[in-house]
Amino acid sequence: MQPPMAGRSFATNCAREMANGELLRKRYTLGQA
């Protein structure tokens, strides 16, 4: 069985990963320009 917090923390981790990806993409595009 999974604790109730598992799903929520997983979603938070996904959101954090997506935010980090956006920052890296912006930084990469700025570096290219």
List keywords for this structure.
33 residues, mainly alpha, rod-shaped
Q: Tell me the fraction of residues in β-strands, as a range.
A: under 5%
- Give the number of helices: 1
The helix content, as a percent range, equals over 70%
Principal-axis shape? rod-shaped
Mean pLDDT: 81
Task: Give me the secondary-structure category.
Answer: mainly alpha
In this structure, how is the largest beta sheet organized? none
In terms of per-residue confidence, which ranges show pLDDT below 50 for 5 or more consecutive residues?
A: none
CA-to-CA gap between the ends?
49 Å
How many beta-strand elements?
A: 0
Radius of gyration: 15 Å
Order of helices and strands: H
Brief description of this entry?
It contains 1 helix and no strands. It is an all-alpha fold.
Structural overview:
By secondary structure, the chain is an all-alpha fold. 85% of the residues lie in helices and 0% in strands. The longest helix is centred in the middle third of the chain and has 28 residues, at 5-32. The protein starts with a helix and ends with a helix.
Annotate the secondary structure layout.
Layout: H1 5-32
